Structure formats: C-alpha cells, structure tokens
C-alpha cells in the first residue's frame, strides 16, 4: 500500500492483479485498485473531479479526466473516510498510475488538488 497526505487529505492505494483477458484478439492484463480518501483536516471537503496518468510498459501514456469517482462526488467530513474500487486494463504486465483529485474546502470555498501517489501495477509472474 502507498499513501500520501496533501493539505490534510490522506490518499491510500491498494492494488491487485486480477488476471489476463482477451479483448479484440489481444491479451490484456487486468488490475484493480482500492482508493481510500481520509480527511485528517479540520474542514469538510468534496471531491469534484479526477485526473489520472496511466503508464503501460508497452504503450504511450494515457490520461483520463472525469467528474467525481464511480459516479459520486463525495463530501468527506473531518475524521471520516471514503473508499472506492476501480481498475484498468494494460497491454503489458507492468505499469503504474498517478494523478490527483480536484477538491473544494467547504470552510474557505477554495478549490485545491490532492495528489494521488504513484502506484505500481505488476503481475506477480512479471517480477523477479
């Protein structure tokens, strides 16, 4: 698990390899990840959007931007946490992801970015 704290918001990531799948006559490597967003600040915050950079050892960088996460824009009060699971397909057994969440602080009404630490995606058989 990797974790990082930005402005009192702790992001923790746990990953797993889910197997190989054929799609469009091509092998894909499936990875799942669980993100936990813990509000260690004194203010309530809301996650509004996300930005991902997905690195695949056999492909170019892929970026993904979108509203909220899993169809939600969670409000996280001080001392509370929000967790969700998602995944991605890579064309190689090794890759990585990183990014950030755009959030708003309800007390100051200011927007800010919370960094998502770089996390590795690797199939167990690809590691020595």
TrEMBL record:
Coiled coil: none
SUPFAM superfamilies documented for this protein: ApaG-like (SSF110069)
InterPro entries (alphabetical): ApaG_domain, ApaG_sf
Origin: domain of life: Bacteria
Ranges where the ApaG domain occurs: 3-128
Entry protein name: Co2+/Mg2+ efflux protein ApaG
């Amino acid at each position: 698990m990797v974790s990082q704290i930005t402005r009192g918001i702790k992001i923790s990531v746990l990953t797993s390899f889910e197997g190989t799948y054929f799609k469009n006559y091509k092998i894909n490597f499936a990875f799942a990840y669980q993100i936990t967003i813990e509000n260690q600040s004194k203010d309530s915050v809301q996650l509004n959007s996300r930005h991902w950079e997905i690195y695949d050892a056999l492909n170019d960088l892929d970026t993904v931007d979108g509203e909220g996460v899993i169809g939600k824009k969670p409000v996280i009060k001080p001392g509370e946490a929000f967790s969700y699971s998602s995944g991605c397909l890579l064309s190689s057994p090794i890759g990585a992801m990183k990014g950030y969440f755009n959030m708003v602080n309800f007390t100051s009404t200011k927007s800010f970015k919370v960094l998502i630490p770089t996390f590795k995606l690797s199939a167990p058989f690809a590691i020595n």
